[in-house]
């Protein structure tokens, strides 16, 4: 088994994408004896593109399926390699998909379409996005007008239609569990959606979340809201 590393070098006039297969030693710690070996894939599919960006270096190193999936989509499928020649300001992932926020406020997505890897049919992601959030299988994009756009698996909060009116404006920050999102609004209220068992339903504490919330925190299956009076409100799974 090998440890797959991908190095993306963005230089003033070109992008060089390469894949290096490092021999994995038992403790997965670096060793002077383990020399990088370029794979056949690397030699055949190295990619160069023109760009005018300043020098940037980004590196991913992982034996996980995510890294391999990123490799396949970027190097083999070429999605969205050309678009990534722009300046990328954020990259975030679900279990099997990636979403990238570009400097022009647009969003790119690739990977498993059922987990947010496709934005076909999703409107509003071509400009104005300031930050992207994720559950295990869905994304939420916060826009500069305070609105929120979601896509991905519906059981993991990819469908926010039930709270669309509340997410049309005023959202400042978003927190997520594995299957739900919670949005903090400028008036101190909280909006939730997604799997009820993971914090997507806050109806039991709705009155406490109607105002005065200053920050939301989350673990895998529950949320905690900190209020301006120092009190705390919790909801989601008790386990």
UniProtKB/TrEMBL annotation:
Entry-linked InterPro entries: Ran_GTPase-activating, RCC1/BLIP-II
Protein name stated in the entry: Bulb-type lectin domain-containing protein
Organism listed in the record: marine metagenome
């Amino acid at each position: 088994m090998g440890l797959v590393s991908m190095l993306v070098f963005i230089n003033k006039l070109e992008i060089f994408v390469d894949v290096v297969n490092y021999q994995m030693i038992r403790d997965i710690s670096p060793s002077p004896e383990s020399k990088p070996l370029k794979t056949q894939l690397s030699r055949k599919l190295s990619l160069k593109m023109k760009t005018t960006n300043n020098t940037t270096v980004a590196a991913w190193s992982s034996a996980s399926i995510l890294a391999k999936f990123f490799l396949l989509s970027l190097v083999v499928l070429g999605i969205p390699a050309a678009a990534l020649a722009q300046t990328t300001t954020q990259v975030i992932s679900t279990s099997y998909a990636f979403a990238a926020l570009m400097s022009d406020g647009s969003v790119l997505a690739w990977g498993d379409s059922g987990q947010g890897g496709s934005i076909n049919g999703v409107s509003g992601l071509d400009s104005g996005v300031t930050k992207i959030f994720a559950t295990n299988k869905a994304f939420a994009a916060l826009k500069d007008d305070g609105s929120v756009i979601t896509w991905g698996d519906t059981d993991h909060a990819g469908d926010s239609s039930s709270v669309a009116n509340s997410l049309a404006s005023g959202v400042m920050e978003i927190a997520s569990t594995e299957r739900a999102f919670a949005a903090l609004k400028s008036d101190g209220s909280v909006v939730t959606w997604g799997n009820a068992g993971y914090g997507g339903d806050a109806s039991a504490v709705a009155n406490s979340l109607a105002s005065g919330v200053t920050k939301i925190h989350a673990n895998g299956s529950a949320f905690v809201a900190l209020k301006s009076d120092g009190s705390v409100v919790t909801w989601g799974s008790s386990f």
